[in-house]
């Protein structure tokens, strides 16, 4: 029997959720978040936004505004609950590190929330007739691309903190022997990859030349590790 399913006492204190219940909440949240993230990233952003082509991007977004709005909602939910539930599960392993892991995930969530302001800006640019009449199609297209780029930049900074969260999470899971060691290592690798990717964006003069390599380095350990953890 794992440490996660072995209670320290026979009865939980009143008003205190058990680690097992918190683990179930975190697991359900992670599985939902995993599906929503795939939808928001690959179906909405990758599917509708064409880099360097404002005309096609505006046409895609205008024709699929409902999907774009759903993508915004998908980005908004669940992370706070997961941060809390993981803290409950991991606080007996090392309370200070578990608290730092929870806070780092919450800081990431704040960055994502700020980034989503630019989604609302895109919606306003494409749906407000007054803005459209005042600016014209070329200016609207430029502003839409600028807003989407600002979303990416704010989210990228947040993903640095999320990478720290994954490193701490992997360390805590290994230390507490709550999951197979290889899963904890995968989460640590994914966290380091997130941080390295943000630094590469900032420091490399031609990030596009290595973008695919970084995509693989980030996506593989993250999708396998976080998907496995949720399941």
Structural description of this entry:
- By secondary structure, the chain is mainly alpha-helical.
- It contains 9 helices and no strands.
- The protein is elongated.
Q: Which characteristics define this entry?
A:
single chain; 231 residues
- Cα radius of gyration in angstroms: 20 Å
| Helix/sheet category | mainly alpha
* Oligomeric state: single chain
Helix percentage? over 70%
Distance between the first and last residues' Cα: 18 Å
Count of DSSP-assigned helices: 9
Which stretches are low in confidence, meaning pLDDT under 50 for 5 or more residues running? Answer: 1-11
What's the total count of β strands?
Answer: 0
Sheet with most strands: none
- Write down the overall mean pLDDT: 88
């Amino acid at each position: 029997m794992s440490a996660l399913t072995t209670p320290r006492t026979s009865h939980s204190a009143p008003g205190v959720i058990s680690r097992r219940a918190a683990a179930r909440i975190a697991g359900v949240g992670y599985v939902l978040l995993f599906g929503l993230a795939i939808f928001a990233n690959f179906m909405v952003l990758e599917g509708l936004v064409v880099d360097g082509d404002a005309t096609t991007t505006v046409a895609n977004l205008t024709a699929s505004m409902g999907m774009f709005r759903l993508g915004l909602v998908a980005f908004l939910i669940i992370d706070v609950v997961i941060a809390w539930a993981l803290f409950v599960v991991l606080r007996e392993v090392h309370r200070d590190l578990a608290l730092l892991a929870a806070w780092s995930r919450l800081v990431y969530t704040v960055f994502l929330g700020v980034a989503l302001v630019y989604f609302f800006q895109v919606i306003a640019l494409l749906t407000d007739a007054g803005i459209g009449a005042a600016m014209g199609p070329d200016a609207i297209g430029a502003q839409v691309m600028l807003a989407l780029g600002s979303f990416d930049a704010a989210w990228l900074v947040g993903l640095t903190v999320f990478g720290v969260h994954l490193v701490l999470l992997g360390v805590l899971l290994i230390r507490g022997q709550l999951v197979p060691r290889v899963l904890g290592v995968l989460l640590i690798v994914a966290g380091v990859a997130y941080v390295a990717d943000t630094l590469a964006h900032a420091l490399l003069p031609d990030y596009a030349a290595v973008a695919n390599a970084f995509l693989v380095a980030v996506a593989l350990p993250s999708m396998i590790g976080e998907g496995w953890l949720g399941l």
